[in-house]
Design brief:
The complex is a heterodimer. Chain A is an alpha/beta fold. Chain A contains 13 helices and seven strands. Chain A has two domains: 330 residues, Thiamin diphosphate (ThDP)-binding fold, Pyr/PP domains (Rossmann fold, 3-Layer(aba) Sandwich), CATH 3.40.50; 37 residues, no CATH class. In chain A, helix 1 packs antiparallel against helix 10 and helix 4 packs across helix 11. The longest helix of chain A is centred in the first third of the chain and has 26 residues. Chain A is globular and about 70 Å long. The N and C termini of chain A lie far apart (66 Å). Chain B is built from twelve helices and 14 strands. Chain B has a five-stranded mixed beta sheet, sandwiched between helices. In chain B, strands 5-7-6-12 form a four-stranded mixed beta sheet. The mean pLDDT of chain B is 97. Classes of the chains: A alpha/beta, B alpha/beta. At the A-B interface, helix 12 of A face helix 3, helix 11 and helix 12 of B.
Amino acid sequence: MTGDSRTNMPRLALHVPEPKFRPGDAVDFADVAVPPAGAQPRPDTAAAPDSFHDLSYTLVRVLDEEGQAVGPWNPRLDPDTLRQMLRHMAMVRAFDERMFRAQRQGKTSFYMKCTGEEAIAVAGTMALHRDDMTFPSYRQQGILIARDYPLIEMMNQIYSNRGDKLQGKQLPIMYSSKDFGFFSISGNLTTQYPQAVGWAMASASKGDTRIAATWCGEGSTAEGDFHSALTFATVYRAPVIFNVVNNQWAISSFSGFAGAEATTFAARAIGYGIAGLRVDGNDALAVYAATAWAAERARTNAGPTLIEHFTYRAEGHSTSDDPSQYRSAGEPTAWPLGDPVARLKGHLIAIGEWDDDRHADMDREVAEQVRTAQKAAEANGILGHGLHQPLDTLFDGVFEDMPWHLREQQAQMMAEEEASGRPWARKEGH
Amino acid sequence: MARMNMIQAINSAMDVMMDRDPNVIVMGEDVGYFGGVFRATAGLQSKFGKTRVFDTPITECGIIGVAVGMGAYGLRPVPEIQFADYIYPALDQLVSEAARLRYRSAGDFTAPITVRSPFGGGIFGGQTHSQSPEGIFTHVSGIKTVIPSTPYDAKGLLIAAIEDNDPVLFFEPKRIYNGPFDGNWDKPAQNWSKHAGGEVPEDYYRIELGKAKVVREGGDLTILAYGTMVHVAQATVEAAGIDAEILDLRTLVPLDIDAIEASVKKTGRCMIVHEATRTGGFGAELSALVQERCFHHLEAPIERVTGFDTPYPHSLEWAYFPGPVRIGQALKKIMQD
């Protein structure tokens, strides 16, 4: 039956998306529309979602080319808050640099940077309340840093060492901290989206005041969980903020494989009847303003918001891939929305609240903090150097109470360890 | 003949089948231009074009559902699920759709799809890049499950799977993509260059589904294994000086029950080794079958050596992995009885 068709009718053709640039290609992002900062209207937070569909197709931008904050979305943050934001973003970058290198040095199995996307998690988190709940994907280390989670705890987890509160059970960077309102990260994609909705529904049903925020990449909006989440959220008007981090690349697949050739990710909101905003993700003030606006909607029972953060993944997906194999090396520098750290720095300088010397001092300070934390974390061990967790923790946490079959297997494992004389057990004296 | 690792052999199988049959198509996350995160589809898109080898949106449910639809049209899709740990969103399309299509339509529609997916641990992949979910699928009627242990078998079995008119899950033990693994994780990694299974014909050949292979003849006991554990078991019995007969099952469904029965009746002892968790694992089915068919020949209780009933840990990976010590202790026990 294959290939049969009526000869008098036009032939069908399968469209397979193709990114504009591949390795070796010269990069020109002229077709990426960048509307002027300050030009987008800011609706009332009580406005009906269908009254501002345009905001799903443009870019909400605050920082203009001169580094000034302009227009109705300007969050009018005081200089101390701006400097704090800049420091958090610089910290994320310094942390990423250091941990990426640690993986390359064989100190752990895996790492993921968020270079170029620092504004999204940091500014977004700063616009939330400290007790709002976050359901992140694996590239929002900025949430923890903006909430002053101890760097050493992050590193202990990355090294799966004695200090790792997750007992070495999870892949590096799959953090979890209930105390910091940070849900346990899954390696599976977008599973956190409906969970954030559930948390938000629970908060609403209890008459609580806390809202939920969640993040996923543009690639993983294809997963069914994304669409289930949006359906629940609109049905129950859940107090939740959906962030889609559109960094253009899902490992080697460009955003066209998630539907970007046809429409924006913010426009996904329209079909569900929820509020949608498309934001310049490299503009920390725009991210802050959009998040604060969405949070206000959620807190006043005006329903969920989906924010697309338009950005660029400046480095590889993780330590496991080499982006020069599938995209042009010229893309990161040609990205028309610039670098989020440089843009916020430029803004602070433009308003007379910062200078290059202070910036250099800050970079040195955060690098030193990261180095100090790293040294302390490595004193707790690094992955592969010995057995850092007591062996029997392998069986902790499968259930609250250990059933007979796990007790039996645990005993079997301990007997094996006795019998083995494994070198990794001897190294650190276990 | 050529020397190939398992990735190259799998790539060659798809290459050969796409050449032979214009209805064979390959799709999955990152499989197109990039050639897959493990490089299994490298070069296929440039050779066969974007409409036969293409990247997909990140939705496993979508990938399998689309493959079923393509199969209904008459194509022979070979979708990749990037890691077996990511296959669960596709469960409905696999279990309720692909596996039942022939039955519920009385053969009007079929799902001639081959789902490739790297599985298993030993690579510090944590709980989302290490699982062995084969037992979930062997429990489902209407779907075949194939697991190779060498490059040679991988190519011949994958070709047979692609040619099969029923849905096949083809789980690839990623720990042995680049070389056999004896379970001694602290020793230098081996490659396939010295292993007989690394000799692979460049052209078409099939290894029939449902046929086990005796990888070591012996009289003391029968070991049933598949994938990575074939190599671990073999190295362990050689080191222990035990004359074990090792059967590489290669296909779990349909199972080569004749080979199992013949071997266990000969040796009188049976050990089952798999990396997957124990409870409800495929080893339980094997144990039941051996007990039903060989009870009067058994001289000792059947032994199961498996992963523990916990999620796959990150740092304690080698305490979890059913390596030489666990197999060695089970060998002692079964040979004493």
